[in-house]
Amino acid sequence: MSEYIHTAYKKTARIQTVVCGLLFSAFSFTYLYVFQSDILEALHFSLAHGKTHFAPLASAIIITVILLLLRWGVNSLLGLKGNVRALSYFPSCLILGALTDVGKDVYTGGYHTFWGWMLPLVLMIYIAVAYWLRRIFRNQLNHESNPIILMNCNILIVIVLCLMAALIGNTNRAFHHELEAEHHLRLRQYQQVLKAGEKSLEASRTLTVLRSIALSHTGELGKRLFTFPQHYRSGGLFFADDSTQTYRYTNDSIYYLLGVRPYAGEKWLTFLQNICYKGTGKYTALDYYLSALLLEKDLDTFVKAVNDLYEIEEELPRHYSEALLIYRDSHPEYPVQITDSTLVKRYITYRERQVGFTSYTEERNRMRREFGDTYWWYFDYQE
């Protein structure tokens, strides 16, 4: 009878080893390839200085295999057995978490992380504690427990360690959206850039700028800019000066797109105005200038720029027409007519919808649901 129990225990132990290995492998690959691929790409770019190509599938597979081999080596070293055998996955899960705990300063010069000293320290403590516990509980580790308890305990340990790795890694969705948009922008996949974080009403300044660059490349800056959240006025067209916010793209990328660099200390609106009126910038500069004026809600200057820089017979992009409809409300003598009857009817509906609300907050939210993709909503409600 005891021999039968011993055989069943050994068989369960082998199955448990395979199950835990498969569970960890599935988690590691999915975590790296699906959820943290953009983080790995950023880290790879920083370490390789952009000189080598990043392969997300191969990277996820190779890292997972290395971590499995590490687990095998740790278990051979520590000799963990029984219900705590899966604790040998601790170093692998810790490294997995540390590898994806990358912050916004990943592209700055001399990038370093506290994991450089924390990881070796934690691993040394882990090895020391594991050795100490193995000596104290040697008899318990050699005891053959119930096979079901053996399986459940080890699976639970692997699940807890995987959760630990996920909690250590970077889970900032805004950061992931920025890296995703940046990745597609580098590949000139402009529509994919616009899909990054498209369902969120929040948008960081970096993501807002990356979207603006993509829209400029597709010629849709005046047509779709306000279909995305705009929280930074004209600053949302340029990166912040803080290098930890700009990643691989900087304002130099925008100056190249515009065809001209500003003078030292020159404000962006002044810079855009000068290159448009002097004709020194590329064709993209006009949309940047007009969009900046709309973002600042400066309709008087916007209308003057449209009159000066646009041909009368040209069809205006949607947001420009929306702005002119607002302008005509206070300047009925303005001669330019909006010929898009559908847009005019929608504007009339917009004005009609603005009455009957009990509070400003209710009005703002209700109007966003129906007209949040228009310049009208931005002009009236965006603070």
From TrEMBL:
Lineage summary: Bacteria, Pseudomonadati, Bacteroidota, Bacteroidia, Bacteroidales
Protein's name according to its UniProt entry: Uncharacterized protein
Pfam families in the record: DUF6057
InterPro entries xrefs: DUF6057
Record flagged with keyword Transmembrane helix: yes
Keywords in alphabetical order: Membrane, Transmembrane, Transmembrane helix
Highest taxon listed in the record's lineage: Bacteria
Transmembrane segments: 12-34, 54-74, 86-102, 114-133, 145-168
